[in-house]
Protein: C-type lectin domain-containing protein
Organism: Biomphalaria glabrata
Amino acid sequence: MEDLASAVSHLKDRADQNEEREMENRKRIARWLGDFNARVDNLSLLLNMQFETVTEIEESTVTPDPLNAPCKPGFKKVTDGPLFACLWTSTYAMSHDGAREDCKDKGAHLLTLTTYEKKKLLVKNNPTKSIWIGLNDQEYEGKFVWEDDNSVCDYSCRQMIFLKGEPNNVSNEDCVKYSPEKHGLNDVFCSDTEYFICEQPL
C-alpha cells in the first residue's frame, strides 16, 4: 500500500509540475504575442507616418492649374486659349501712383503685358478708355520695369508692345498707358489721370 501511495503521490507531483510548466509556457506565449502586437502597432504607425509624409511631399510639388484658380470677388476671369487672368477694371480715373496703390489694396497689381499673348488678352477684355499699365521708368530713366516682379522690359519687349516712336520721354514721361484706339503703349506723365486694370496674382 505504501508503494502504491508513493506512486500516486509521485504522479500527482509530476502532474503539478507539468501544469506549472504549461502555465509558464502560456505566460511566455502571451508575453511574446504582446511584444509582437506592440511591434506590429509601431510598424503600422511608422508606415502611416511615412505615407503621410509622401502625401505631403506630393501635394506640395503639384503645380496648381491656373485655369482652375478662383478669381477674387469683383475680378473677371478672362481667357484666351491656355492663357488666363483675373482682371478688375476701374470705373474711375486716378494718377499712376494712385492706381497702383488702389490695386495693392485689392491684393493685386496694375496689369502687366510681359508677352504678346498678354497684350491679346487685354484686347479681348476690350477696354474702351486709355488705361494705366504696370510699367514705368521712374527709378532709372529709360529702364522700364514691370511692377509685378521688377523685371526689365528690354528693347525687344518695347518693340513688341509700344506704339511706333514710343517711348519718347517727352518732358520726362515716366509712366505707361495703353491706348485702345491704337492698340499700343506710350509713355505719359505719371500725374495724368487714367482708368486702370488690376491683375490678380495667380
Notes: Residues 76-200 form a domain with the Mannose-Binding Protein A; Chain A fold (CATH 3.10.100.10). The chain is about 45% helix and 20% strand.
